[in-house]
């Protein structure tokens, strides 16, 4: 057996998330079908994280052990020939024996994408949350700075989730403005792990600051509360992208 690490990108619009669900289209099911078609194996495909319905990825990492001796490039090309056009395997490389895409990850980078303009987006309508009210990006950045460090992020976890700990370390949290007219607002959060819906909760909370409903220091109160009701609403799934997952060399 050999162990492989696949990097996978997908448009999550048509899927009920990464993980297998009965009678629902999922990214994991589509990848498993493609794998079976070219290797005749019912392999266990383990992802770095279970993205939710409608969430996208450009750097999802999937681990698999296989008896197939197909070269990396033939595997990549074969999988892409069998996958639907909204899922792409961008890389196949060897992984250490026993590689586990979830447990072995050191940190992840997520981006939340906003289209901040009176005119709704056309080309980006599946990938950016449209907000017509002008956002104060500087205030959002000031609020985001409070997230950096090791904190209890219980206020950003969807109620009902089960975790042994809600403490996580955020390495970087930024809010940047771009596009020809400044209409693109991107929130990037990098950390050693994330709670269920944590990034969407952070994005929704930052938008409350950006629209002037709250001041940047409100973020400190939200963190201290350890209560989901203290934070802003979850931002819609369509703006969230899993950008990168980092492992030990």
Automatic annotation (TrEMBL):
Q: Name one GO biological process term.
A: tRNA pseudouridine synthesis
Pfam families to which the protein is assigned, alphabetical:
PseudoU_synth_1
Q: Which reaction does it catalyse?
A: uridine(38/39/40) in tRNA = pseudouridine(38/39/40) in tRNA
- Keyword Ribosomal protein appears in the UniProt entry: no
Q: Where is the active site?
A: 52 (nucleophile)
**Sorted alphabetically, which InterPro entries does this protein's record hold?**
PsdUridine_synth_cat_dom_sf, PsdUridine_synth_TruA, PsdUridine_synth_TruA_a/b_dom, PsdUridine_synth_TruA_C, TruA/RsuA/RluB/E/F_N
Please provide the record's keywords in A-Z order.
Answer: Isomerase, tRNA processing
Which residues are noted in the entry as substrate-binding?
110
> Could you confirm whether the keyword Glycoprotein appears in this record?
no
**Could you state a single Gene Ontology molecular function term?**
RNA binding
Domain Pseudouridine synthase I TruA alpha/beta per the UniProt entry, residue ranges: 8-101, 143-247
Instruction: Supply the EC number(s).
Output: 5.4.99.12
Described purpose of this protein according to its UniProt entry:
Formation of pseudouridine at positions 38, 39 and 40 in the anticodon stem and loop of transfer RNAs.
> What protein family is recorded?
Belongs to the tRNA pseudouridine synthase TruA family.
How does the record describe its quaternary structure?
Homodimer.
Q: Which HAMAP family match?
A: TruA
State what protein this is by name. tRNA pseudouridine synthase A
Q: Which organism is it from?
A: Aeoliella mucimassa
Chain's gene name: truA
